Amino acid sequence: MTLRAALLETESARRVTAALANATLTWGAYSINGVLDRDYADRLGLVTRETRFTALASALPAIAQGASVTVGATAYTVRNVEPDNTGLVALVLEAA
Amino acid sequence: MADHLHKQIRAALVTKLTGLATSGARVYANRLYPLDSANLPGLRLYADSEEAEVLTVHGPAIHKRTLAVAVEACALAASGLDDTLDLMSKEVETALAGGITVSARTLTPTYTGMSYQDEAADKPVGVKRMTFTLEFEAAANAPDTLI
């Protein structure tokens, strides 16, 4: 039963990512489709953006803080890796 | 009637701090609205609080006022953020050490300390908040005039 739930979760994450993907992230030999969000953010009274890339965790094995990636033509540094335990991982990105 | 001394002091601070090497004309007497990237690196300044002491027995009372003001160096940078903030604060402290001119008089801000805040974002942002006090005297019925 637990195994079946896990499979459903993985399949659900795969389909959601495939349906909502709006960008491709490149990291070394990996090229992964996912969801890029660049939300407005007010930090310390200064206007900035919070950039996150969400993709299947299985597509980004061993990615870690400090990794250099590109999304489209923009280079970023991965500042945090946030797995959600449902098969997705969100990368918190900082413009390089 | 002239503006309240608080307003005159804020205006004098803006005048004194406008044109510094790093922040240039980006000096804002504002604590309400967020600064956009076009306003950075910049300085945000405002009056924080004031303490007053009555110096006279008879009215109208003469107050010795100690006004606390904050000057915030604000920057956004992918690298060297704290270095930029330190450079900005050096420029601010140096400029204010010469005093500000209010109603043709020189008031000298006294540096009382600072605090850092940095936050991660698409480009990291940082604020170095410097605090100063200014002492002056004014009559209770004339808060727009220095004594």
Keywords summarizing the entry:
heterodimer, A: 96 residues, alpha+beta, Thrombin, subunit H, 6-stranded antiparallel barrel, 54% strand, globular, B: 147 residues, STM4215-like, 5-stranded mixed beta sheet, two-stranded antiparallel ribbon, 2 helices, elongated
Rg value of chain A? 14 Å
Domains of chain B, number = 1
**What is the helix/strand order of chain A?**
HEEEEEE
Euclidean distance between termini CA atoms of chain A: 45 Å
Write the CATH architecture name of chain B.
2-Layer Sandwich
- Spatial strand order of the main sheet of chain B: 1-2-3-7-6
Question: If helices are DSSP runs of H or I spanning 4 or more residues, what is the number of helices of chain A?
Answer: 1
Fraction of residues in helix of chain B = 10-25%
CATH architecture of chain A: Beta Barrel
- How many distinct folded domains of chain A? 1
- The assembly state of the depicted protein chains is heterodimer
The major pleated sheet of chain A works out as: 6 strands, antiparallel, barrel
Number of strands of chain A: 6
CATH class of chain B: Alpha Beta
Tell me the name of the CATH class of chain A: Mainly Beta
Shape of chain A: globular
Describe this structure in words.
The complex is a heterodimer of chains A (96) and B (147). By secondary structure, chain A is an alpha+beta fold. Chain A has a single domain (2-95), classed as Thrombin, subunit H, CATH 2.40.10. Chain A is built from one helix and six strands; from the N terminus they run H-E-E-E-E-E-E. Chain A has one helix at residues 2-20; strands spanning 23-27, 30-43, 46-56, 68-71, 74-83, 88-95. A six-stranded antiparallel β-barrel of chain A has the order 1-2-3-6-5-4. In chain A, strand 4 (68-71) and strand 5 (74-83) form a beta hairpin. The longest helix of chain A is centred in the first third of the chain and has 19 residues, at 2-20. The mean pLDDT of chain A is 89. Chain B is of the alpha+beta class and 147 residues long. Chain B has one domain (5-139): 2-Layer Sandwich (STM4215-like), CATH 3.30.2000. In chain B, 20% of the residues lie in helices and 41% in strands. Chain B contains two helices and seven strands. Chain B has helices at residues 5-17, 81-97, and strands spanning 27-28, 42-54, 62-76, 100-102, 105-107, 110-119, 125-139. In chain B, the strands form two sheets. A five-stranded mixed sheet of chain B has the order 1-2-3-7-6. In chain B, strands 4-5 form a two-stranded antiparallel ribbon. The longest helix of chain B has 17 residues, at 81-97. Chain B is elongated.
